[in-house]
Amino acid sequence: MRHRRICTPIHHQFHRQPASKGKDQERQCVRFLTTAIPGPKSAAQISSNEELAAIVHQFAPGVDYAFGYGSGVFRQQPSSPLIYQTNKGKSDADEIATTSPGMIDIILAVNDPLSWHKRNMERHYDHYSTLARWGGPHFVTQLQVNFGAKVYFHPFVNMSLNMPRTQSNHPNIIQREIKYGVVSTKDLIQDLLHWDYLYLAGRMHKPIVSIELTSTDGADGTNMERIDAPATKHDMRYEVEVAQRINLLSAVSASLLLQPPTSTQLIPTSQLYNTIASLSYTGDFRMQTGAEDPNKIKKLVETPGMIERWDDVYSETLVNMQKLGLLNVVANSDSPHVADTSRCLEISLMERSVRKELVKNLPVRLQKHSDRIVGTNESIESIRNGGMVLRQELANIVSPAAKSQSIKGFITAGVGKSWKYALAKFAKGRLRK
Q1: Residues 83-123: tens digit of each pLDDT
Q2: Which top-rank group of organisms is this from (predicted)?
């Protein structure tokens, strides 16, 4: 397969101009090619876009970008009908529909953490631990931006959501348990571009649901408060989305470099997605100690309906990489696996020149090890050793961030909630065996 020359991206600068279209597109650096945005709710999505937006609108103003993820947003096990229970003791106007999709995970990127926490404490004082309430917004902000992976989590928060009117013209009030994390928008962008922690960047390697932040009418017909100014929202959301495109291309490139070397390279897209899903767990002590579900990666990719979500995320990146001659996207009708029947990637990973081009798409901190990752020759041993180097460097990023963020949770969430959260994780991991 012939490979055209790919221009070398500038990694230490953040370019805000999107890739141009048409013939000019092939002259753009790979790291700035566009990536498809996931479409409407799929079979795998169990929390609707409307629910997620209703949750975010209950928080303080100043959110630049928000997304939902995890097992409360996407089904990560075989399909089972959601059970809706109606409180018959209430009047129609007070009807409460309770569903249990699991705890919904949401990340809020805010422009000014101190200002945001001040307002959020006024609205949701009970979301904060005793120590956080005692320390106040300044203490909370310092914990957020100076420790761990620069995210402040609130787990096990119960919310009542007013959903759109039913046919009986009465609002539906549904109960949701959520965990929300708060991050500075600039810190989110930094992690997406440079993989400083591979914490939120790793979460955004996987399918997510970008949450609409524009003002909408509430269930009672009143206008909900805008949670951000239009100029700020469009400006910062655009920067996050461009950084995310770079993040996704880095994920594809790293995952291709981690594939086992063979003389004939034909990689099912599902195999690539499994590798991508594993990047942010490389060296994570929670996987090693049984504090995470050992089947988590498999569920993230192979649960019915999820492979389509992965395709939504990565299709355009792969097509653009094909246009630049780095790989070919081909049909895979011969595969016995149902999940693999759509597409495969044909790429000559044995060629040193191909591996060099892939390394150029990694964050700068990984490019510093490019000679060892690429290898000295085109032997299987050299390529395998390069993959081991890359995996170790990924672990050097993930391991300290995962440990420090977990320790930070005992302060931000409080001992009680942290212990409850840890037990829930162990129940999915070691205790489930």
Answers
A1: 333 344 444 334 334 445 689 999 999 999 999 999 999 99
A2: Eukaryota
Cβ–Cβ < 8 Å for 132, 412: yes
Is the domain of 232 the same as that of 285?
no
Structural domain includes residue 419: no
pLDDT tens digits along 367-401: 999 999 999 888 899 999 999 999 999 999 999 99
Structure tokens at 299: 């569920």
- Which domain, by its residues, includes 345? 22-36+247-401
- The rounded distance, in Å, linking the Cα atoms of 419 and 410 is 8
Between CA 101 and CA 221 the distance in angstroms is 27
Helix (H) or strand (E) holding 255: helix 230-257
d(CA 208, CA 37): 10
Question: Are residues 207 and 264 located together in one domain of the fold?
Answer: no
One domain, residues 294 and 358: yes
Instruction: Specify the pTM.
Output: 0.80
- Rounded to 5 degrees, φ, ψ at 302 are -100, -5
81 in the same domain as 166:
yes
Q: Which residue has the tokens 């795998």?
A: 44
60 in the same domain as 206: yes
Six-digit token string for 259 = 């594939």
| Rounded Cα distance, 218 and 171, in Å | 10
Residues 6+ apart with CB under 8 A from 21: none
Asked if residue 141 and residue 94 are part of one domain, the reply reads: yes
Token pair of 166, please?
Answer: 């039913």
Concatenating the DSSP letter of every residue in 409-431 gives HHHHT-HHHHHHHHHHHHHHTGG
